């Protein structure tokens, strides 16, 4: 199953292709799946994927060459079966009407019924890696695979003309992979009401620079092992284009800072390296249009080449946290609340919440091995401690901490984990994007993974226990599924505001 998870990662990642095959227009295929709420459409042409180069890139980023190597036959077999049965494009369309469901995976349907079923089965193998069961149906001449809720949304969708989104799709028609994005009228209003100000790392000021200044934006990735990428943004005016170009540059710098800064680099050294990576981009503004071009594969491979590999390790750790957050949300979907420690009838903790999510991280068999009415250190359960899932191990942990994890729940009154019967997502009053759900601690706070033990956050010194793996900062996973690198110098009050779930504060990530 881990091999299919890697396949899901490869399909979700930007991909690139061999020169073979003619480029084709995709906007008409996607049109029936676009409604007034759709924000983005993403497509991958599986038939033209250069697996050799893609797997090389995946190994460099994931830092697990052995696992990637073991997965190669499974992935090659999947791609071969997909194309043999007439498969080419796989795409998703996502917007407000899809939330909070994982959107359907969609592929144009071949003529033969047997081939349609074969494509559906192959897409189901990938979709179920999210922890959800998947059904399939033919909708608008396409094979649609997804959970029942997601399929219901697709079937009920009333297509409308979205000229700006269609133009963004057409801008990427020659690519092997593309992503097109355009804000709907409702989305613009919501963003201006809920988040009227841009984050300080993006220059601050009003969100209207984006909501009123941008018509559409499109990312396209072309053929070849260098992964040539083009990011095109259409603004409403030349003046707006200059504002958006500045925001784009700051966004790229912020992303690199989150992912790639090494413990051994000074700020000056890191700024120099960022500028070097940014210099690979060719960015131009012609009238209302901004176009940035770069070799994405070359840039990514260069970015993770550092002594001791801290950037790559940070990326892998962030990926672990994202998988754990996805498991928490899938558990919530199944049970109506987030998991808790397993307790006896008197309320005494027996096993960690990490045991509860085992079925949602591809560890159903291990979950069945536990005796849930016995403590973690009972004669039976204690022998399972040595079977800690790989996703619970940080790449920065010491080698001798094989049965311990540093991915912990932050405990304290008013935090994500203070409801004995499990927190409902509606109880996160500050918003999921402003509330920390999980943290990565230092090795000194590592706990036996199945033991009901985590970390209590000190309101006066909330950073205590969180440093040790990444020097000047630490990783946190927010309740919306995103993962951020937080500076140790962050204002304690601002950090505490992020830990509380219903404090009414307005957290500032920049302080």
Instruction: Extract low-pLDDT stretches.
Output: 13-24
| Structural class by secondary-structure content | alpha+beta
Q: Write down the Rg.
A: 23 Å
Percent helix: 25-40%
Q: Could you tell me how far the N terminus lies from the C terminus, measured between alpha carbons in angstroms?
A: 41 Å
How many individual domains?
2
Count of alpha and pi helical runs: 17
Descriptive report:
Residues 13-24 have low confidence and may be disordered. The chain is 36% helix and 18% strand. The protein is globular and about 65 Å long. Helix 3 (51-62) runs antiparallel to helix 4 (65-84). The protein has a 7-stranded antiparallel β-sheet. Strands 14-16-19-20 form a 4-stranded antiparallel β-sheet. It has 2 domains: 2-182, no CATH class; 310-499, no CATH class. With 511 residues, it is an alpha+beta fold. It has helices spanning 2-12, 27-30, 51-62, 65-84, 113-127, 148-156, 163-171, 185-194, 208-211, 238-260, 267-278, 296-303, 310-335, 353-356, 364-369, 379-382, 492-499, and strands at residues 38-45, 89-95, 105-108, 135-139, 142-146, 177-181, 214-221, 228-235, 282-286, 289-295, 342-343, 349-351, 404-405, 407-408, 410-411, 436-440, 447-448, 455-456, 473-478, 483-487.
């Amino acid at each position: 199953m881990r091999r299919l998870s890697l396949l899901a990662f490869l399909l979700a990642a930007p991909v690139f292709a061999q020169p073979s095959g003619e480029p084709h227009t995709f906007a008409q295929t996607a049109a029936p799946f676009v409604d007034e709420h759709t924000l983005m459409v993403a497509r991958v042409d599986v038939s033209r994927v250069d697996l050799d180069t893609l797997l090389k890139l995946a190994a460099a980023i994931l830092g697990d060459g052995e696992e990637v190597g073991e997965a190669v036959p499974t992935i090659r077999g999947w791609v071969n079966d997909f194309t043999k049965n007439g498969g080419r494009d796989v795409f998703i369309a996502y917007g407000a009407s899809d939330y909070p469901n994982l959107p359907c995976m969609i592929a144009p349907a071949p003529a033969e019924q047997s081939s349609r079923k074969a494509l559906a089965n192959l897409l189901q193998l990938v979709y179920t890696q999210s922890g959800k069961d998947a059904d399939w149906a033919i909708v608008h001449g396409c094979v649609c695979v997804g959970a029942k809720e997601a399929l219901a949304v697709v079937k009920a969708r009333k297509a409308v003309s979205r000229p700006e989104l269609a133009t963004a799709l057409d801008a990427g028609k020659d690519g092997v992979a593309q992503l097109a994005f355009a804000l709907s009228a409702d989305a613009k209003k919501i963003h201006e009401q809920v988040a009227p100000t841009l984050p300080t790392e993006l220059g601050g000021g009003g969100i209207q620079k984006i909501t009123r200044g941008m018509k559409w934006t499109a990312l396209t990735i072309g053929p070849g092992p260098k992964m040539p990428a083009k990011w095109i943004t259409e603004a409403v005016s030349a003046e707006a284009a200059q504002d958006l170009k500045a925001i784009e540059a700051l966004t790229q710098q912020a992303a690199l800072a989150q992912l790639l800064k090494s413990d051994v680099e000074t700020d000056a050294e890191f700024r120099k390296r960022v500028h070097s990576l940014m210099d690979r981009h060719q960015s131009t503004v012609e009238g209302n249009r901004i176009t940035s071009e770069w070799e994405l594969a070359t840039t990514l491979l260069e970015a993770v080449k550092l002594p001791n590999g801290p950037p790559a390790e940070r990326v892998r750790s962030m990926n672990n946290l994202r998988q754990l957050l996805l498991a928490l949300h899938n558990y919530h979907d199944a049970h109506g609340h987030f998991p808790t420690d397993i307790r006896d009838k008197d309320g005494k903790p027996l096993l960690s919440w990490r045991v509860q999510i085992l079925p949602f991280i591809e560890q159903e068999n291990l979950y069945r091995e536990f005796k849930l009415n016995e403590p973690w250190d009972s004669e039976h359960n204690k022998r399972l401690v040595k079977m800690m899932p790989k996703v619970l191990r940080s790449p920065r942990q010491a080698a001798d901490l094989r049965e311990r994890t540093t991915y912990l729940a932050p405990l304290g009154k008013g935090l994500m984990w203070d409801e004995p019967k499990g927190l409902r997502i509606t109880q996160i009053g500050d918003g999921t994007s402003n509330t920390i759900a999980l943290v990565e601690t230092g090795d000194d706070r590592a706990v036996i993974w199945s033991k009901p033990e985590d970390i209590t956050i000190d309101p006066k010194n909330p950073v205590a226990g969180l440093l040790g793996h990444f020097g000047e900062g630490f990783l946190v996973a927010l309740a919306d599924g995103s993962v951020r690198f937080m500076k140790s110098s962050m204002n304690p009050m601002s950090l505490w505001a992020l830990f509380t779930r219903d404090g009414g504060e307005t957290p500032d990530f920049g302080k």
